[in-house]
Write a structure and sequence with these properties.
By secondary structure, the protein is an alpha/beta fold. It folds into 3 domains: 167 residues, Trna Endonuclease, Chain: A, domain 1 (3-Layer(aba) Sandwich); 247 residues, 3-Layer(aba) Sandwich (Rossmann fold); 201 residues, no CATH class. It contains 24 helices and 22 strands. Strands 6, 7, 8, 9, 10, 11, 12 and 13 form an 8-stranded parallel sheet that branches. Strand 2 and strand 3 form a beta hairpin. The two termini are 35 Å apart.
């Protein structure tokens, strides 16, 4: 790099076709020649830079962007972003996010400091603070002329622990980013597939096998001109939605698809995210909104339209149903709609099968099944799909093993003629929890009330990403400290947490307000105080199911407490002036599932706030909250202490899952 001219390097970069990114980004990048010239001048006065590796336009798949320059040195990885204009908060967040991405998702970046450096014309020179191993430092700022001094200062302050990093080895190292659901949706739609994500994932075999199995089943249905339904299962955060979006967004002459969900919040957020992404690429907002309204639909709207038009066949041969086990049972559907203009006469599964059967060529229903996600009365589970299919024997049925052998009869398909069981339709590796794959199994043990099993899971994973605090200001402080770059934090609580208002947590996000939900999940504080990271509005299970945050503040309340002996959970609902114990098994199961949803939303860390209660208020008894906190600590959760930063990944951890 020091030999070539800046102009030559800039020309080579401009001529490259980088497949991960949009061509419009080339126009938005700062002048390469000026940036390269500044970098060359800085490196020319640093003798040890001869052995460094300089990587320009390093691709960040998760964010759909590129880092201007990565300097790989023996004792630190330096992430440089060049800006012509005055440095601002957004620029600082951008370069910090790049550094965090490399730290968490590049296997060789966890043993060295990763240093984000913002180089801008309006920045004042900044000296480096002492660097710490296994961490991302604060953002350092400098001008192009001050870059050499800053780089030398950084290297002089590096703590040299362990063997030096070989720059060539780092360049060849594995980079495995984990996109959020929103990022994955934008990638899948704009690139018509998730190949980039699959190639980047540590557990690509699991995700790739399921994606391929779905594609193969769709191709078979098309070639055989038959009706096919498949049931894809998976643990929370395993990528079911990602696989479903990939199937729905595939856009070929014979495979047009749509994504259906009964979760209005997921519809609001995904639609708005995809619209914003399309507008950023030059599309007209109105056109983008119409396209996304067809690609991502509320299940009730799809169902109602085709029931109102009994001879019309769906235009899309492939329909993906998110959380299909939550479809209404026959009894609930009839009772719920009896007074509506178009009442249902069968279960939702029955009606959906009949609607898709209207197609004269082929039809495919891809049912994504998430165990333990039922949070509403009347959700029929897989048993209702099994009953509907036994009444309609013309369908070819493919299912993951979990759809046929689970102990809960509500979640079993039951006997179906010619059912084909395919192990590739099950996703058993979590891709949501960046800090390890034990979070889902730990939450399952906690909600079973098995402290011994939960503690064993925590020990075997060298800890789980859950912390406990009894202090609300401490939780907010912890969330703000742990949230860096463009990572997102937010407060979650059960919809039944009626007594949290005594703690000042009464502002609940309106989950049916499309604009409010989209702003909460997509915008950022302080630009918008309605955003999740303002930590003012609390989202419930209805707002966050199917979505995720990087850092979660989970607010516990008296709707789920330990019994007097401390041996089991007690589910309660607040009626009038006091708590009432739930007795119906379905309601108890739904309440436990509510907490399962809330406890599995975080990608990095969950801070659980358990109030101290008030001895003078029978609805907020301190002994009940003490019992909850004691149980969670016995399960292996840590105590939050302030100041406390996000603990680093351990070298023994699996590589980013």
């Amino acid at each position: 790099m020091l030999i070539e001219t800046a102009a030559d390097i800039a020309m080579r970069l401009a001529g490259q076709q980088i497949r991960h990114f949009r061509s419009t980004e080339l126009e938005q990048s700062p002048a390469w020649e000026d940036s390269i010239l500044a970098l060359q001048r800085a490196l020319s006065v640093i003798p040890q830079a001869v052995g460094w590796r300089v990587l320009l336009e390093y691709p960040i798949i998760r964010l759909g962007r590129r880092i201007d320059a990565v300097l790989v040195t023996p004792h630190a990885v330096l992430v440089l972003e060049f800006k012509r204009e005055q440095a601002d908060t957004a620029s600082r967040a951008q370069v910090e996010d790049y550094a965090l991405d490399l730290f968490h998702f590049h296997e060789l970046s966890r043993r060295q400091p990763v240093v984000p450096i913002l180089v801008s014309g309006g920045a004042r020179g900044a000296s480096a603070t002492p660097l710490v191993m296994h961490a991302v430092t604060d953002v350092l700022q400098t001008t192009p002329t001050g870059l050499a001094d800053l780089l030398q200062d950084v290297l002089a302050r590096c703590a040299i622990i362990g063997p030096p990093l070989d720059p060539l080895t780092w360049e060849a190292g594995v980079y495995r980013p984990v996109p959020t659901i929103i990022e994955a949706a934008c990638m899948a739609y704009s690139r018509n597939g998730v190949a980039d994500i699959r190639e980047a994932r540590a557990d690509q075999r699991n995700l790739h096998a399921t994606t391929s199995a779905i594609a193969h089943a769709i191709a078979h249905a098309r070639d055989a001109a038959c009706k096919t339904i498949m049931f894809v299962t998976g643990i929370p955060g395993a990528g079911k939605t990602l696989c479903g979006l990939n199937a729905a967004f595939a856009n070929t002459a014979t495979q047009r698809g749509t994504f259906l969900t009964g979760n209005p919040s997921l519809v609001h957020v995904l639609r708005e995210a995809l619209v914003r992404d399309a507008v950023a690429q030059g599309a007209h907002r109105g056109d983008a909104e119409r396209k996304m309204a067809a690609k991502i639909q509320r299940l009730v709207d799809f169902r109602t339209h085709y029931l109102a038009h009994p001879t019309e066949a769906p235009d899309e041969p492939v329909v993906v149903i998110d959380e299909a086990q939550r479809s209404w049972s026959r009894d609930h559907a009839i009772r719920k709609t009896r007074d509506m203009p178009r009442p249902l006469s069968d279960s939702e599964p029955g009606h959906l099968l009949d609607i898709m059967a209207r197609r004269s060529d082929f039809a495919v229903l891809v049912c994504m099944i998430g165990g333990g996600q039922e949070i509403h009365d009347g959700e029929g589970g897989l048993a209702e799909w099994g009953a509907a299919l036994r009444a309609r024997p013309g369908w070819r049925v493919l299912a993951a093993p979990d759809a046929t052998n689970v102990s809960d009869p509500r979640q079993r398909l039951g006997p179906i003629a010619k059912l084909v069981v395919d192990g590739n339709l099950h996703l058993d590796v979590s891709i949501r929890h960046i800090r390890g794959g034990a979070a889902a199994s730990w939450v399952d043990a906690v909600l079973r009330g098995d402290a011994q099993d939960a503690a064993a899971i925590a020990r075997s994973a060298s800890g789980v990403p859950f912390m406990i605090t009894r202090d609300l200001p401490a939780m907010r402080a912890g969330l703000r400290q742990m949230t860096r770059g463009t990572r997102r934090c937010g407060l979650l609580a059960s919809s039944g947490a009626r007594r949290l208002r005594a703690e000042g947590l009464g502002a609940e996000l309106a989950h049916m307000d499309a604009g409010a939900v989209a702003r909460w999940f997509l915008d950022h504080y302080p630009d918008d105080v309605r955003a999740s990271d303002a930590l003012e509005q609390v989202a419930t299970e209805f707002s966050c199911q199917g979505l995720e945050l990087d850092i979660v503040g989970h607010c516990w309340d008296g709707d789920l407490v330990r019994n007097a002996r401390g041996t089991a959970w007690v589910a309660r609902t607040f009626r009038g002036t006091d708590w009432q114990i739930m007795r119906a098994p379905e309601k108890i199961a739904n309440q436990l599932n509510t907490y399962r949803v809330l406890l599995t939303r975080a990608r990095y860390q969950t801070i659980i706030f358990v109030p101290r209660g008030d001895p003078g208020d029978r609805t907020r008894r301190p002994d009940e909250f003490d019992a909850v906190a004691t149980f969670l600590l016995a399960c292996g959760a840590d105590v939050l202490t302030i100041p406390q930063l996000l603990p680093p990944l351990k070298s023994a951890d699996p590589v980013l899952l």
